[in-house]
Design brief:
2 domains; 11 helices; Rossmann fold
Length: about 290
């Protein structure tokens, strides 16, 4: 049983699990906080859960205690594997531990839908994993929801709205296909060792289809061009995509003199549709 396991600090000391900066490790040792993160993911009793970078297993314990049907934990640091196996032995049949790089492993062979992703992501791969989960070849994705910890600055970029400094490509990519919200913030001292920045947990629910129809590669190209030169007006930032962009923007009701952070998701999707000749009434991109 989970409650028979020793305190995390004892586990870390016994296995000499000092966090390694090169692996982006900052261990969350307060089991009350890991339980709050697990609860933020919703009812897990009928779900398989994918966890990336479990470390000594604080969040893993929380997920199992909250009733997750099965947890697949992918851990790159071999030093953590004995501690995770102790948890697996305490919960027979409910925890599978894979050793390796989450960027290189396909977890789907080990998971049964419905699937939720819950992770205190290593800072050095967090954004890359999020983008991968948001840009599968087929939508809806394999996951129902993502409950992920990021640096607070990254979390704020994910939920940012037009007009804010944090608003940009990550906000548009996320909000096109998911509903994100920050559910918990944590100070540096919640971790061992304390990072130099605050952290936040973001819960993202997958939408059944993108909010507005658009061709994904065209939308990404437009958004990238707009925000790569975010200080420029759209008529200048997007000229490389279409020399007649000013007339196109005028026709769509998008001010050519506006800057990228002033333009909402619906307008960017309308521009992407226009550039790819997708009629407004066409079925949504899947």
């Amino acid at each position: 049983m989970i409650d028979t396991l020793p305190p995390l600090r004892d586990v870390i000391a016994r296995h000499d699990l000092r966090a390694r900066k090169a692996l982006g490790q900052n261990f969350l040792l307060d089991l009350n906080l890991t339980a709050r993160i697990a609860r933020a993911a919703g009812d897990l009793r009928a779900c398989d859960v994918l966890e990336i970078g479990p470390g000594p297993g604080g969040l893993t314990r929380g997920l199992l205690a909250e009733g997750a049907r099965h947890v697949l934990a992918i851990e790159k640091d071999p030093r953590c594997l004995p501690a995770l196996q102790e948890i697996a032995q305490a919960c027979p049949g409910r925890l599978t531990v894979l050793s390796g790089d989450a960027l290189q492993i396909d977890p789907l062979a080990h998971l049964t839908p419905p699937i939720r992703v819950v992770a205190n992501l290593p800072y050095n791969v967090g954004t890359e994993l999020l983008v991968r989960w948001l840009t599968p070849r087929v939508w809806p994705p394999f996951w129902q929801s993502l409950t992920l910890m990021f640096q607070r600055e990254v979390a704020e970029r994910i939920v940012a709205q037009p007009g804010s400094k944090a608003y940009g490509r990550l906000a548009l990519l996320t909000q096109w296909r998911a509903q994100p919200r920050i559910v918990l913030t944590l100070p540096p001292e919640a971790f061992s060792p304390p990072p130099k920045v605050s952290s936040a947990v973001v819960h993202l629910t997958a939408l059944p289809a993108p909010r507005f129809p658009a061709d994904a590669p065209v939308l990404e190209r437009v958004v990238a061009a707009a925000f790569n030169q975010r200080r420029k007006m759209l008529r200048a930032a997007l000229r490389g995509i279409d020399p007649a962009i000013e007339a196109r923007l005028d026709r769509l009701g998008i001010p050519p003199t506006a800057r990228a952070e002033e333009i909402g998701l619906e307008a960017f999707c309308a521009l992407a549709r226009d550039l790819s000749a997708i009629p407004p009434g066409a079925p949504r991109q899947n």
